[in-house]
Design goal:
- By secondary structure, the chain is an all-alpha fold.
- The chain contains ten helices and no strands.
- Helix 3 packs across helix 9.
- The longest helix has 44 residues.
Length: 232
C-alpha cells in the first residue's frame, strides 16, 4: 500500500463541509496562538531583558513558519492525494502577510520610532533589512489580490503568474534571516529554514520540469502519430 493510500484510509481526500469548517476554524485559532502568546508575555512583563528584540524576532519567526506552511500545502497534496488542504492555502498566505506586517510595524515603531531618516539609513547600511523589507512589500499585492474577485479581474493565468512571486518572497525571507543571523555567527536555524524552503521549491521545480518535458514528449508522439496516419 502506498503512502497516499495509507493516509487516505486515515483522512479522506475530500472532507465533508462541516468537517472542513471545523478543521479550518481550529487551524485559524492555532495560527493566532503566537500572537496571543506575545500579548500574554507583554502584559505579564515576561518579554525578557530586550523586549523589543524579542517581539520583532518572534514575529519574524512566525512569518517564516506561516510561509513554510503555505508553501508546503501543494507538496502535501501531491504526496497524500488530499484535496482539502488546498482550500486552506489562502488563509495561511494571509496569515503570512499578517505576521510579516506586524514584524515590519514592530521594527518601524518599537525599534525606530518611525524615524524615516534612521530607517532609510538602516535599509542602506544593512542588507538583511533591505531583503526583509523587499519581501514584505512583495507580499502586499498577493494579499490584496487573494480574493476570488481578483482572480476574475486578473484572469486565472495572470493571477497565477502574480502569485508565483511567493517563491521569490520565500528566498528573500530566508536570505533576510540568514544575513541577520550571520552577523552573530548563528546559522543553525536559518540553515534549517533554507533546507526546508529549498526542498519545497525543489518539488515545484521538479513538477514544472515534468510538465514541460512531458508536454514535449506528448506533442512529439502526437505529431508522429499524425504523420504515420498521413503516410499510411
Amino acid at each position: 500500500m502506498t503512502l497516499s493510500a495509507r493516509l487516505s484510509s486515515l483522512v479522506p481526500p475530500v472532507l465533508q463541509p462541516q468537517a472542513f469548517l471545523r478543521v479550518r476554524a481550529a487551524l485559524f485559532v492555532v495560527a493566532l496562538l503566537p500572537l496571543a502568546r506575545l500579548l500574554y508575555l507583554a502584559f505579564s512583563g515576561s518579554l525578557g531583558a530586550n523586549p523589543v528584540e524579542f517581539v520583532i524576532r518572534s514575529l519574524g519567526t512566525w512569518t517564516l513558519v506561516a510561509l513554510v506552511v503555505t508553501l508546503a500545502i501543494t507538496p502535501l497534496r501531491l504526496a497524500t492525494g488530499w484535496a482539502w488542504p488546498m482550500r486552506l492555502r489562502r488563509m495561511f498566505g494571509l496569515f503570512t502577510f499578517f505576521y510579516a506586517a506586524l514584524h515590519l510595524i514592530a521594527y518601524l515603531w518599537l525599534d525606530q520610532w518611525f524615524d524615516l531618516a534612521a530607517i532609510w539609513k538602516d535599509v542602506l547600511k544593512r542588507p538583511y533589512i533591505t531583503a526583509g523589507l523587499a519581501s514584505v512589500l512583495l507580499l502586499v499585492p498577493l494579499a490584496v489580490t487573494s480574493s476570488n474577485g481578483w482572480v476574475k479581474r486578473l484572469g486565472g493565468r495572470n493571477w497565477q503568474r502574480l502569485h508565483r512571486l511567493v517563491y521569490l518572497i520565500a528566498v528573500l525571507a530566508v536570505t533576510h534571516f540568514w544575513w541577520q543571523k550571520a552577523a552573530k555567527n548563528d546559522l543553525g536555524e536559518p540553515l534549517a529554514y533554507a533546507i526546508v524552503v529549498g526542498l519545497l521549491l525543489g518539488v515545484r521545480a521538479l513538477r514544472w520540469a515534468q510538465r514541460r518535458y512531458g508536454s514535449v514528449d506528448s506533442s512529439a508522439n502526437s505529431s508522429s502519430t499524425v504523420s504515420r496516419r498521413r503516410t499510411s
